[in-house]
Write a structure and sequence with these properties.
Chains A, B: Keywords: DNA-binding, Kinase, Transcription, Transcription regulation, Transferase. The structure is a homodimer of 245-residue chains. By secondary structure, chain A is α+β, with helices and mostly antiparallel strands. Helices cover 41% and strands 21% of the residues of chain A. In chain A, strands 1-8-3-6 form a 4-stranded antiparallel beta sheet. A 4-stranded antiparallel beta sheet of chain A has the order 2-7-4-5. In chain A, strands 9-11-10 form a 3-stranded antiparallel beta sheet. Chain A binds a DNA duplex (30 and 30 nucleotides) through helix 8.
DNA sequence: CGGACAATTGAAGCCGGTCAAAACTGGTGG
DNA sequence: CCACCAGTTTTGACCGGCTTCAATTGTCCG
């Protein structure tokens, strides 16, 4: 399980959807597309909106999230370079069930629905790649739900820091070097906790020498420890209240 | 959103995967299959196992869940009559990321991997039906995650009771008649809480006249109230601590 | 240099988890 | 038909992890 999640691949599996296509197919998709530069914080689409196409991230980072009526934001995925987004609603033939917005300045190509469908119809490769990607995403969601239900904030934070590090640190020079840029609020919404709780937990990790952090940067110092803290096996031995008087 | 989730269709969308296929395709799938009778509580497959085919539920109910190392069980979906299970891992080309077991005595057909793949290759319909189903499942997971993060046990319980009622009560005679059979433990694991907490919340609903229950049966008495309690809009007005002294 | 926003720290209290034990159920055999 | 056991449901008590509210510090820019 651990090996599965943290397997050495520099890129995670879901990222590979687009890469699996032939060059011809990639061009057929991107050809009709319109590339646009998004500033940090711009919305790509909104929960409840009508899907009119999909998006290809040439550079940048996009968060997928859902907003609650009270203004809260639940982030459940971060998309990076080379990933496609927005195809779920299109495939499911329904309205967007989530929103997407850039976290940093990004360059993104919009692929109109018709063009996407055309390639989809003519290419078994795309169809299969999508099935594979969606099948895989399923296991990610399972894990995500299980984590939310059974893990503490500390464990979830450690886990997310690991994922962020693996996904967004191309600088593979050293196990120890890794920087993560993400506002406290975003990180809290990704981990699924209040930002105050998040901050306190970060402090604690720093005090324990597991991470280092400046105002906007988090760096994993002790990789082994943070893997241990993430407790991927779920063996968490709750300090039992058994003082046996 | 509410209308979307609770739309009048007697069956929920995901159930319809198999139904979308032509009769020929259905037969091509089930033809080579082997039907087997499972007693309540039997496992179909286990987290970490190698997928060798998919399952079609002729009758009965199957829970999809994940076990934690400590023995806990996280249920995230209940499959009913006419549904397919186990295709995610096959499509994603990986090991099962979840387990499946019957909740009541069930009649289930096993479709070997090769036969499934054969039909998948030759039929654009199945391929498209799968894409649609998976795309839709995505939105269910989003909702599930959001619910876990932002809703109280009371709200989640109300929501799940509604879903159970809609999905497993073919007896459409009356809005009020509805029986749900599920052990307290299973229900707790479905809602995502401890069974003691669940029991207390059930008591409370009963005391408030929203539901009725005997030892193993739960019946929704006041449908409007329970919809309200589920708080599908997320407008939960937390009793603000503002006593303004 | 102030104004806005993000990050941090402090304090209080509730929700829900855990442990423990009682009440209830159904099934079994004497 | 009753006594008994095993499993499930229910009730009680406790308390700790998180959320929430509030206030302070830090930081980036115009």
């Amino acid at each position: 399980m651990i090996t599965k999640i943290l397997s050495g691949n520099s890129r995670l599996k879901t990222d590979q959807l687009f890469e699996q296509l032939t060059v011809q197919e990639q061009e057929a998709l991107l050809g009709p597309g319109v590339t646009h530069v998004y500033k940090k914080g711009e919305m790509l689409f909104r929960d409840g909106g009508i899907p009119t196409g999909i998006y290809y991230i040439r550079s940048g980072v996009v968060k997928k999230f859902k907003t609650t009526a009270k203004g809260g934001e639940q982030i459940f995925y971060l998309c990076g370079e080379g990933e496609l987004i927005g195809y779920h609603a299109l495939l499911g033939e329904e309205l967007y069930s989530d929103s997407a917005a850039t976290i940093i300045d990004s360059q993104i190509t919009f692929i109109p629905k018709d063009d996407f469908v055309k390639v989809l119809r003519s290419s078994a490769t795309l169809s299969n790649a999508l099935l594979k990607a969606l099948g895989h995403e399923f296991s990610l969601f399972i894990n995500s739900i299980t984590n939310l239900r059974t893990k503490s904030v500390r464990e979830r934070l450690a886990f997310n820091l690991l994922l962020l590090d693996m996904k967004f640190n191309s600088s593979k020079q050293s196990d120890i070097a890794s920087d993560i840029q993400l506002s406290r609020t975003d990180l809290a919404n990704l981990v699924g906790t209040a930002k105050e709780t998040l901050v306190r937990q970060l402090q604690e990790f720093k005090r324990e020498g597991i991470i280092d952090k400046t105002d906007k940067t988090i760096r994993i110092v002790d990789r082994k420890r943070i893997i241990k803290e993430a407790n991927l096996l779920g063996l968490n031995q709750k300090k039992s209240r058994s003082n046996i008087p």
